[in-house]
Structures are given as C-alpha cells and as structure tokens.
C-alpha cells in the first residue's frame, strides 16, 4: 500500500517503456514487506530530471540507455568501481547526497559464468557505450582477450585505449567477430520495437560460440534466434538484469534481495521466454 511514508525509487531511460525493472523490484519489496515502490520515467532532459528527483527526495534511481555516462555530471559522489568503468547504473540518495554506482558488471559476470569459464576465452564486444564499459570491466577481471566492435570506429578505439583492449574495429568486420569464442551484444539492436534487427548475420555465428545479448525485450532477440538456429549456446539478457538488479535492491534497501521472487516476476513479464 502506497502512503505518505513510501520511499520512491525509479528507473530512467529513453526508451524505458519496455523495462521490467518495476515489476521485478516491486515484487522484491512486497516479498520483504518494505514500504518502497519503483516507477519508470522516460527522461529526455536529464539535468532537470536529476534536480527534480533530488528536490523530491527520491530514494534511488536506476539509470539505463542512454544516460549511463552523462548522469555522472549531476551526482555528488561516484563509487570507485563506477569511476573506473566510466558509467553508472544506480544512484542512491542519502539525505540529499547522490552517490552513483555500477552493478551492470556484476550482473554480466554472473550471467556469463553460469554458462562458461571465462579464463582463456577470446571475446567480441559489440558496442562501445556505458553497458559495454561495464562488461569489459568485468571481463578484465579474468584472463581474456577482448576486442571491441562499434559503428563509430573512433569510439571503439577510445574504449580500447581506456581499457587496454586487444583491438578495436567497425561493426562491419564480421569475419573477425566470428573468429572469437564469445560474442556479447551491448547495442540496442534487436530491442523492441525493432526486434527484427540483429547486429550480426547468421553466417557469422558458429556452433562453438557462446552468444550473450544484453537486450531482454524481447527475451529471445533476433540475434539469439539466429544463435539457437545455428546450435550455439546463448545467455539471455534478463540474467544480467536479475543479478545486477539484486545488487541494486541491496544498495537501495539495505536488505538481501529475494532473488527467486525477483526472477519469477521478471521472467513472468517476458514474452518469447525460453
């Protein structure tokens, strides 16, 4: 029951209408009897939105595409890990002080390690935005070779320099992508309402690949459909949302996340779930 004592949290992005974070987090709050609620807000004017959340004493803000880097300009403190990554996905408001964190890297690492041992693998990261930075940070904690592929070669090269990666190329270098062990899509290609798009053609996907798409609406993206058809193993994007979201839940509430409850709520909201 929402009342005058309810602690308001939110997720901001553009687009954000597809997000299942409210469903997942609110299920967690209800399971523990916490007087919290989480809403989704489409945000275009980021600076004004953060000022408004501060003025309204919003407890926490989950940050998604395209605001993960720009929002760093409008907070008071940035966690050391988030500073190293250069992107954030969570802001905690403590008595008017906004502190930013990044839990994307934890979510990605746990999702990948459910399926494979990362040490010794060569990995293609598609995209060079905030999510790519978090995932690369996670991969750098293991003995991996990482190559980044992006529509803007300059942005890919800057990312490769920041993290001392093994190479940076355009997204059109599909043969090079195909020669890696793991392919991770961090671009929005395939996200609703453009679910018929894939960052890779079917010919680039081998049976030996592990394909991870961080897009989770739809759950079975065009890229993952192609991967399954080619008998490759896949990692669904909702896993990153779940494990990263559990850490967000703990940052905002100080309570251990009820993971099974949150996963049930999250997967219950997915279509084309498999």
What does this structure look like?
The protein has 10 helices and 12 strands. The protein is globular, with a radius of gyration of 18 Å. The two termini are about 35 Å apart. The protein has about 270 residues and is α/β, with parallel strands linked by helices. The strands form 2 sheets. It has a 6-stranded mixed beta sheet with strand order 2-1-3-5-6-4. Strands 9-8-7-10-11-12 form a 6-stranded parallel beta sheet, with helices on both faces. The chain folds into 2 domains: about 5-100 and about 240-270, 3-Layer(aba) Sandwich (Rossmann fold), CATH 3.40.50; about 105-235, 3-Layer(aba) Sandwich (Rossmann fold), CATH 3.40.50. Helix content is about 35%, strand content about 20%. The chain has helices at about 20-30, 45-55, 80-85, 105-115, 130-140, 155-165, 175-180, 220-230, 235-255, 260-270, and strands spanning about 5-15, 35-40, 60-65, 75-80, 90-95, 95-100, 120-125, 145-150, 165-170, 180-185, 210-215, 235. The longest helix is centred in the C-terminal third of the chain and has 17 residues, at about 235-255.
Radius of gyration: 18 Å
Strand portion: 15-25%
Strand order of the largest sheet: 2-1-3-5-6-4
Average pLDDT taken over every residue: 96
Biggest sheet descriptor: 6 strands, mixed
CATH topology of the largest domain: Rossmann fold
Count every beta strand, where a strand is a DSSP E run of 2 or more residues. Answer: 12
What is the terminal separation in angstroms? 33 Å
């Amino acid at each position: 029951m929402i009342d005058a004592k309810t602690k308001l949290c939110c997720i901001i992005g553009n687009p954000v209408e597809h997000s299942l974070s409210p469903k997942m987090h609110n299920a967690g709050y209800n399971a523990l009897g916490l007087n919290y609620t989480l809403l989704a807000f489409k945000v275009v004017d980021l600076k004004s939105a953060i000022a408004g959340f501060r003025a309204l004493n919003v407890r926490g803000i989950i940050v998604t595409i395209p605001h993960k880097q720009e929002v760093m300009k409008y907070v008071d403190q940035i966690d050391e890990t988030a500073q190293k990554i250069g992107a954030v996905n969570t802001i905690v408001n403590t008595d008017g002080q906004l502190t930013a964190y990044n839990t994307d890297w934890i979510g990605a690492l746990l999702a990948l390690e459910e399926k494979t041992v990362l040490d010794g693998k060569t990995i293609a990261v598609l995209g060079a935005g905030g999510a790519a930075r978090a995932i690369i940070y996670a991969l750098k904690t293991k003995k991996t070779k990482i190559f980044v592929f992006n529509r803007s070669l300059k942005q890919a090269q800057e990312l490769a320099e920041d993290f001392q990666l093994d190479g940076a190329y355009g997204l059109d270098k599909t043969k090079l992508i195909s020669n890696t062990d793991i392919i991770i899509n961090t671009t929005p290609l395939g996200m609703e309402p453009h679910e018929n798009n894939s960052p890779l053609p079917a010919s680039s996907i081998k049976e030996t690949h592990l394909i991870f798409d961080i897009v989770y609406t739809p759950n079975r993206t065009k890229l993952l459909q192609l991967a399954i058809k080619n008998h490759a193993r896949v990692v669904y994007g909702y896993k990153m949302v779940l494990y990263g979201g559990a850490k967000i839940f703990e940052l905002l509430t100080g309570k251990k996340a009820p993971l099974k409850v949150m996963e049930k709520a999250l997967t219950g909201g997915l279509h084309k779930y498999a």
